[in-house]
Amino acid sequence: MxxxxxxxxxxxxxxxxxxxxxxxxxxxTKSFSYIEYFPFWEKTLxxxxxxxxxxxxxxxxxxxxxxxxxxxISITITAxxxxxxxxxxxxxxxxxxxxxxxxxxxKMFFISNNNExxxxxxxxxxxxxxxxxxxxxxxxxxxxxxxxxxxxxxxSNTIDIIPIKHSVPIANGKDDISRLMNHxxxxxxxxRATIPSITHFVPYKGSDIRISFEKFxxxxxxxxxxxxxxxxxxxxxxxxHRLKSLENCYARLARIICMDIxxxxxxxxxxxxxxxxxxxxxxxxDELRAFVDSHRGFINEFxxxxxxxxxxxxxxxxxxxxxxxxxxxxxxxxxxVTNIPDSITSSAFGIAxxxxxxxxxx
Amino acid sequence: MxxxxxxxxxxxxxxxxxxxxxxxxxxxTKSFSYIEYFPFWEKTLxxxxxxxxxxxxxxxxxxxxxxxxxxxISITITAxxxxxxxxxxxxxxxxxxxxxxxxxxxKMFFISNNNExxxxxxxxxxxxxxxxxxxxxxxxxxxxxxxxxxxxxxxSNTIDIIPIKHSVPIANGKDDISRLMNHxxxxxxxxRATIPSITHFVPYKGSDIRISFEKFxxxxxxxxxxxxxxxxxxxxxxxxHRLKSLENCYARLARIICMDIxxxxxxxxxxxxxxxxxxxxxxxxDELRAFVDSHRGFINEFxxxxxxxxxxxxxxxxxxxxxxxxxxxxxxxxxxVTNIPDSITSSAFGIAxxxxxxxxxx
Lengths: 362, 362
Known about the structure:
Chain A contains 13 helices and 14 strands. By secondary structure, chain A is α/β, with parallel strands linked by helices. Chain A has a domain at 3-146 and 338-361: ATPase, nucleotide binding domain (Nucleotidyltransferase, domain 5), CATH 3.30.420. In chain A, strands 3-2-1-4-5-6 form a 6-stranded mixed β-sheet, with helices on both faces. In chain A, strands 7, 8, 9, 10, 13 and 14 form a 6-stranded mixed β-sheet that branches. In chain A, strands 11-12 form a two-stranded antiparallel sheet. In chain A, strand 11 and strand 12 form a beta hairpin. In chain A, helix 1 crosses helix 2 and helix 7 packs across helix 8. Chain A starts with a strand and ends with a helix. At the A-B interface, helix 6, strand 10, strand 12 and helix 8 of A face helix 6, strand 10, strand 12 and helix 8 of B.
């Protein structure tokens, strides 16, 4: 009986997610996850290694493991796009420097957009191939369980749509811009999206009101008001740095049309929240339809309906709802397919799991 | 010969503007202005009186006046909408408290949305009538020079469109929400507007790319790239807290489609900047057209073409351009009509001038 322990890290611009997987004889026997809201644009350079040390404390030490027991740390980075860095290369190299202060460089492996893991040395030379490749690892992990499907990972900030064939991603785009172009990446999500990024107008008293551009509210306020997320799932900062209570969500939403909770009724705000939600669904629906159009050949290969596997914090209220509107009902969750314990940190499980399988089975 | 000195203050959410006017025998004989970028949402309560004291230092003392020589301080407030305050009332009362620490309350007068100035005591009781009434004072001031016209004040954040008849504003809306509804207030401007509040797509390599919702760039970057504003006129904070150089404006704009200046050419970014500018013009054009439709009776009263008087930082590149597209060519600037020295602080001149004329001529 051999135990192998893999730590997976998904270092995003707003959240860093970690998953620790213990494999015994090719089976996951233990798993743990941890998420920290760590917005790079508000941080200084020396806070990055500190954050990584907190990750080690919370997911390794608190679960009674030692760092040197961990066989490998498999990593994906999307934080390089943060405007904490002037260029993506600067971002990647800064994060590499922080990682090497906390982890043994010989144990680190990075997923590349060529569907393979590369070591620290090579990653330093090919930083552009490992930027924003988190969708690759989740796809490879899922591909182990279901060879042909469409993975949709809908998180707090972005939605990845990835066609998987013969167990590997066959996306048309490799980097952010080509993925945006091919409708394989949508820059919207369940928590941090701003309201004007979804709609320029909201209804009030029978009129369409052009809203303010200020970051008065976020989509997390809308989804909290509508009950799509719990207060605990509202993990991002609020727009006004006040509480996440319903009262405060309503107060923030009121400001988008220059009102306050003294002057607008909750029922009017509920109508506005519903309207914004519908607009977000519409936006995703447009992108999904464009995705289907440009991947028609692949979609037609499914005997019956194409299979969609969904994950991420916003999977149910953003994706399942949109797929059903499009008439797709063959939907599974990544959690039920792969047996990982939760959807919020699925990308961290994905990077750990994908690495394990590459290490042991290929 | 009597000298009367009036200090006008326009306390906005992002900028506080001040104008000092010296009148001699009913004529403006000296004038000074001062603007401070003071974003309320980043400030603590005790910084407000400090900011007001800096205003006094910079516009009163530096110009060799004493505070007790000033006959009146006429004030308009729009900062109450800032999410520094939970409600507008809280905002107004907080700013009142700060004002009373710096100025003699018996000398303070506030413009109300009923076209009159009210004293400190009454303003405390009627805070909602003085919230966001800055457009009233500029209209009353302009009305002294031109009795019938349409004033358009296009600043860094918002655009006011105000019909003036028989020297007084005859707007359909009185507060922010009714003014938004009546197309008399547009929440967009030349500096702080976010890109997704203007367009959800930009062109790149022949595709329409759905952009990121992150505050990676601001419209000030677009207008700086296009030469609509100088670096000195770029008075707001940058989105990434980096420099206002052209290089940095391009870097910020690149991020809206998840790129960086290593990967996208300036000529592609110029196309994107032009597209966003056109979209902002389109947005204003739609609102102006709706304004004209709902004020048709008033517009038709002009013998020939209606007269538009424009002011504010964005008057030329946002408003003159849009009016010409709509076929309106009878355009004057507030500066040429009233002889105030600059357009950026025109609202502060307006509040000071309007108060003087009410005090002396009515």
